[in-house]
Backbone:
């Protein structure tokens, strides 16, 4: 442990905190090491500790870098499209999900999930006609509960990139946790996959 002057205040730091501070102070803003949730370490005089503050003016980016096979009819998290939420805070989110079905006879459902006791409000939009014709057709639904979308009994195209978007807000109550995009296959097989290129953004009010 050592004592450093941070923003005019003497602070006792661990070796790791001292290393983080040195890295933060010595690099240009666009090269500051980021935390996996898309934030940067910043010292807070009021709390007396490092806090992770969002980058990009408060907007955080999520990217799916590995494809994911969805085997099962129960909802499961889309890996990479989740973020931590704190108690008594409100968040907005926008997700763009690219997926495929190996056959038109296997359908899908998409939704969101988060901590118990939260108020949630979101729109889910998905294709009903594929892009191959030059013009996609969409169906949009509005929900105020987690995992509300029932499974569709078919996909509109086999082995083609299809899109689902989810955007909305969540007001977290007393229980913090993780907010996640969720997906389920209509059938317990390996037909459905969420693709690399899916992404999301989120910010806290």
Residues:
């Amino acid at each position: 442990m050592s004592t450093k002057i941070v923003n005019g205040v003497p602070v006792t730091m661990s070796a790791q905190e001292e290393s983080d501070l040195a890295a933060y102070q010595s690099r240009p803003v666009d090269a500051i090491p980021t935390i996996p949730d898309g934030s940067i370490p910043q010292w807070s005089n009021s709390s007396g500790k490092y806090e992770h503050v969002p980058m990009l003016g408060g907007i955080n980016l999520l990217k799916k870098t590995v494809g994911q096979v969805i085997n099962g009819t129960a909802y499961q998290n889309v890996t990479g499209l989740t973020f931590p939420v704190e108690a008594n805070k409100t968040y907005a989110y926008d997700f763009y999900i690219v997926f495929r079905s190996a056959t038109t006879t296997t359908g899908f459902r998409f939704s969101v999930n988060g901590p118990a006791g939260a108020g949630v409000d979101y729109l889910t939009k998905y294709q009903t006609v594929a892009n191959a014709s030059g013009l996609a057709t969409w169906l949009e639904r509005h929900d105020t509960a987690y995992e509300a979308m029932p499974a569709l009994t078919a996909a509109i195209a086999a082995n083609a990139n299809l899109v689902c978007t989810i955007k909305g807000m969540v007001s977290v109550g007393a229980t913090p946790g993780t907010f996640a995009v969720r997906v389920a296959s209509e059938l317990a097989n390996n037909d459905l996959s969420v693709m690399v290129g899916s992404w999301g953004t989120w910010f806290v009010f």
